Amino acid sequence: MSTLLYVDFPYSGPWGEDMAIAMKELAQSISQEPGLIWKLWTENQEQSKAGGVYLFSDKASAQAYLDMHSKRLNSVGITGIDARFFDVNPALSEINAGPLSGN
């Protein structure tokens, strides 16, 4: 069953296009993570938070990514990571055009 992973954490910028430029190589490496179907990058400058919503093919892949990602964030001094896992209901998601594949 597909697993949705939600992650956010304190972040002071850059934002918008500057973030897109600064994080391009990271985004390219994330796209190679085992089990990743897609990621939506999130940012909230008013609350100084950033993160993402990820769809993985299974919970084990999502957990392995979160373990690695948390270590990476901690290594640059980021703490206060909020991460949550959700099972995806494909039948209902399909009715509402939920993007359940990489297409």
Automatic annotation (TrEMBL):
Q: One Pfam family of this protein, by short name? A: ydhR
Q: What GO molecular functions are on record for this protein?
A: monooxygenase activity
The reply on keyword Lyase is no
- Classify the source by domain of life: Bacteria
Q: Which UniProt keywords apply?
A: Monooxygenase, Oxidoreductase
* Presence of keyword tRNA processing: no
Concerning PANTHER family, the annotation shows: MONOOXYGENASE YDHR-RELATED, PTHR39169
What is the protein's name according to its record? Monooxygenase
Species name: Alcaligenes ammonioxydans
